[in-house]
Write the structure tokens for this entry.
Amino acid sequence: MTSIVSVSTGALSPADVVNVARHLAPIELSAASLAAMAESRAVIDALVNDTIPHYGVSTGFGALATKQIPIELRTQLQRSLIRSHAASSGTEVDREVIRGLMLNRLSTMATGRTGVRPVVAQTYAALLNAAITPVVGEYGSLGCSGDLAPLSHCALAVMGEGKVRNADGELVDAAVALAAAGIEPVVLAEKEGLALINGTDGMLGMLLMASSDLRKLVSIADLSAAMSVEGLLGTDDVFAPDLHTLRPHPGQMAAAANMRTVLAGSPLLAEQKAGAHQFTRVQDAYSLRCAPQVHGAVRATLAHAESVASIELASAIDNPVVTPDGRVESNGNFHGAPMGYVLDFLAIAVADLASISERRTDRFLDTARSHGLNAFLADDPGVDSGHMIAQYTAAGIVSELKRLAVPASVDSIPSSAMQEDHVSMGWHAGLKLRKAVDGLARVLAIELLTSARALDMRDGGLASTKSSAVITAVRESIRTKVEGPGTDRYIAPEIEAVFQLISDGSILAAANSALDAPLV
């Protein structure tokens, strides 16, 4: 059973967010968080009868902030805010994105800086624990003033309105789902509607999940690159530690170390160095020789993105915010630029990591560069096409990833009668990064599938393997799902099978099973 995640006044960990978003880990609010919320709510309650206007408490919103709202209409004000802002459209966003968004908003509430009553946070926690997920379309957030539309759909569900998916994934009315789970809808009080929608929670959740995925995929990339080096009769000399200490980027050194580890003890490379394959190349192609440099740059980019995410995860983002000394102050902390930039930066790194992988795949298929392998790794070239079109698939994905690498964060567009005249587009940067990460995993799957076939063709299969212990273990894992070389067969399920082995962790587990310490 997944352990309970405690939401308190301090920051959640990235792993906490992933576990709740993806794995339905249960959550609980700490006593400290409930006390902090009660304390800040008292500050808001003290302003209710104040004749001085306070944004979100006694005024309209955005460009309508100059309008003072009478006390008897303030409940309607909060309700109207949520209903009008729940304006998303398009394809339904994945459940894990919405769960991550809700948890991050709950985490900010728990800091006690938003002024919401404890019951609001408790209701959010109840929805998450009941696996009730508001339905949100992909369009609607500009990534400034928070992820307004997506967060509004979540607040709407807490009010018992709108559409949700229940724990079984069925589309139902929120009121029905809440009643079935024994959850009482919330009637929002002053400021609470605004406090539920002014955050970077959606883009932050997408960044945390993409970073978690990419941390594993970059190790897979080291592994697949090493398999390609072995399968293409390359050399591991260029991965020597002393060469990488001359340019000591930490990520580059980690990638080179991984590739050395994967290739250690390879009989195929030992034969090649002994001259069995009449090795005459002075240098391997860049896609082989420079893999640590490219993979290392991806790691550096990822480390930067993770540092930004950790700061955001420890932040209390709302407007206005209740400060620790009891002031209620307007601010611009909801602007998504920090998230938008690194989401876009990661999309660039993902595209390039996939690009170099596809180039290695392509080398296996060309008789002028594959060093003795059949054209396209076909059983009978001409009769069979082998992996010709698998490479087309990888190339098509890489081309799409290059388009997805075009930054969203530079495409600000004004809104709210020019009051909100510069926005981050971080939400869309997050959505496209999710698609990019999925594409990268598929490109790496095709490289692994191709290199495993090439190695089988070189050494006759696992019974007579000449691969290193690590690569042999990976080949064995692939062969549990995909047959070895032979005449052409339906290849799409084979690509999908290796993609699933990557996604469920089987490939890395197989590699690590042959090691004393796991790949980094």
User: Anything to note?
Assistant: The mean pLDDT is 94. The first strand starts at residue 5 and ends at 7.
